[in-house]
Amino acid sequence: MSYPEKCLRGIINESFLEDGKVTSPLFYFDNKHRRPDGWIELSINWHDDDNAIDSTLKQRRESGELKFKAGVAILPRKGLDEIKMWDSIGGRLAYERQPLSENKYHGNILLNHEVSPRIAKMIAASIALTTSQIIPQYNE
């Protein structure tokens, strides 16, 4: 499967930012998103075209409230690929496309459920450090 050079992670609020940078909690994997196949999903959007950023920033909750009030983090796929190759990760990190009817850009970063909480936090910090840009919310 072909993937673009970048993916996007929505930033729900300012608590995920510090000094203009994303913090590792933005990339914490939550077991409530664990699938039957043992992978834990962390939702992203793939930057397939120029509309992906605007589409992500326009996402709303059922209440009509903007979902990503603080903006969008842009991650180079190359950074994820490097992390996936680390010996300490050993094939326990992956990504996928998972288009939704309301979001053709949707995908996931995947973490194997057997990864310890300490290693999962190290992975989250590593992903945060690969963030190349933050686009602030402009859809009020």
Features:
6-stranded antiparallel β-sheet, 21% helix, 140 residues, two-stranded antiparallel ribbon, alpha+beta, 3 helices
Could you characterize the architecture of this molecule?
By secondary structure, the chain is an alpha+beta fold. The chain has helices at 51-57, 77-85, 117-130, and strands spanning 6-11, 17-18, 21-22, 39-46, 71-76, 93-97, 106-112, 133-135. The chain contains three helices and eight strands; from the N terminus they run ββββαβαββαβ. The protein has a six-stranded antiparallel β-sheet with strand order 6-7-4-1-5-8, with helices on both faces. Strands 2-3 form a two-stranded antiparallel sheet. Strand 6 (93-97) and strand 7 (106-112) form a beta hairpin. The chain starts with 5 loop residues before the first strand and ends in a 5-residue tail after the last strand.
At a glance:
The protein has 140 residues and is an alpha+beta fold. Helices cover 21% and strands 28% of the residues.
Written as H for each helix and E for each strand, in order along the chain, the element string is EEEEHEHEEHE
Mean pLDDT across all residues, rounded?
Answer: 95
Low-confidence stretches: none
Strand residues, percent: 25-35%
Structural class of the helices, strands and pairings? Answer: alpha+beta
In quaternary terms, these chains amount to single chain
Total number of domains: 1
Radius of gyration: 14 Å
Helix content: 10-25%
**Distance between the first and last residues' Cα:** 35 Å
How many strands, what sense, and barrel or not for the largest sheet? 6 strands, antiparallel
Shape: globular
Give, in spatial order, the strands making up the sheet with the most strands. 6-7-4-1-5-8
Count of extended strands? 8
Provide a count of the helices: 3
